[in-house]
């Protein structure tokens, strides 16, 4: 979190012991440790006195330069930091003040000296003797000091904090921006309290609370949320305020947000706002989408650079990493706790008894827990592992295309093309439902919170995506007819697996100006290839379609030119013409014309798999041309499925899935496509296809691959046997018919050890 803990006190008061006993070493920046790294000093045996060593102190200027550089780097990243020093000198807090203003930090000081001063009745001589004794008797890992050093420190402490009558301790000399706590061994957690901060949202003054998902400059929908504002309504924003917004409304959005004042308004920090720090402090821009935001606001004349920096600096100070809401206590069920953040709190954090929430790196709540937060099904795991009365509300990540309330105790407020928010509301003064009731098309169970979900079409996301396509080095754009552009991820992006919100959409995505005119599926993966494509992440029921081994044809109606267009996903002339020929030859064009006669269908794209075994050879053998309609998808950001064709069956549970795999995956087809209940898609490639693909590699090379030899990989082992069989049959060049004939040769000879086996659930599970 953006929290700085200043450990203050005389040497020997327990600062280092506190760090050691509470395992805080990795959070701590210490001048002593830096001093030790710079010089071994004048040593006698294993003894090292950094305080009385003139060589060590000769490096003091460099020590503090490095100290503040390390501290700033940590604060720039939003990490919790402890700083260990006596902090008794005049001006000890000056640099902290600069940094906390730059990086929006909550600063707390723990006084380790005060408890002993009181214990010894404020007697300065006794206090000095006590701390001197402590430094002499403590373990060797801590430094020891001369009596005069301790005496000087005690004098400084008394001068700053102890009243003239020597019977009170006052912190009037401490700047008001520092919260002071006296060390209490019996209550170590009090220094982490959120009391008095907006991270605790008090319901007692409100009858309604709107929790608003990723905004992305959606000014039109933002106005709808506030249209019926009444006194007693609170608002919590989960972040991502401007980037990807409609250029026409960016200023309106920023001005409206910054005009909102009062305790009923809470702004959380999103990952896009992390780029604000470098901009407001140094004028640097580290995020392409934020660069577009800044360029738009400045080039339109909305702000000068300096005005925008000042505006965002002020707004940035209001952003928090998280917010908690507790419902009032109920004798029946106790309380409900709402945990609200940008990326969602990970169940692994909540269930770790050693985790102190205040010590979390802010990035964990803004981007998610490493190593790959997008690949972790945070909603599902929260539901499985966290109590139902602790409710996780977040935006930012939805790689699994969850609904707005995927489970009883999670709410996901982000989805491409949607503006999502939820409303927590009281009825007759109660935030919980007394008895079963139906309201706003939602059925509420007794003793549960009354929450209404809202899902509106996003008003600006398409324009933002198109801007990202232009800027991304991972996207290849091809100019086609009449201003249409084909957008596809590059070979390098594919090879290096640079998948993100932009690259997965750029798979046969056709745009013109700020509009999607036609599109393929969003990139989907083989089952088990990535964490998010693990077969266990699918939601039943699962629809199953046969996967045809051809190339994708994208057919859409061009409303501007009043005609139907046919392209391959790359928009290349050869495959686009070939697709049109096969569609005409197979009679599909008549069906396409009839489909688009209905004007309501003209906002959708028809997707076909085209097979032309002579002109476009692949791996699976077909004896003729065919055009298989796969689906109709909406021309929106997500490519929402409107109609899925060639469905061969439905799987309702894991037992049925196991049965399907055992009966249907030992095939000479490419495999299957699974569509789950949320329209999430994964590919299931047959072992036949995988072996034949390996065979093609070897036959193209003209010799067995080295990877086939001395391997435990069953696919590669069988591919080696197929290669030798093809050679013995006089086959030197790969074709789909070669693989098919080799397969049947082993089949006829009953050589099952050289035949592909059915897939299992384990084959479709992600392995790290």
From TrEMBL:
InterPro entries: Calcineurin-like_PHP, Metallo-depent_PP-like, P-loop_NTPase, PP1_catalytic_subunit, T4-Rnl1-like_N. GO terms for molecular function: hydrolase activity. SUPFAM superfamilies: Metallo-dependent phosphatases, P-loop containing nucleoside triphosphate hydrolases. It holds the Pfam family Metallophos. Residues 208-400 form the Calcineurin-like phosphoesterase domain. Residues 505-624 form the T4 RNA ligase 1-like N-terminal domain. This is 2',3'-cyclic-nucleotide 2'-phosphodiesterase. It comes from Ligilactobacillus agilis.
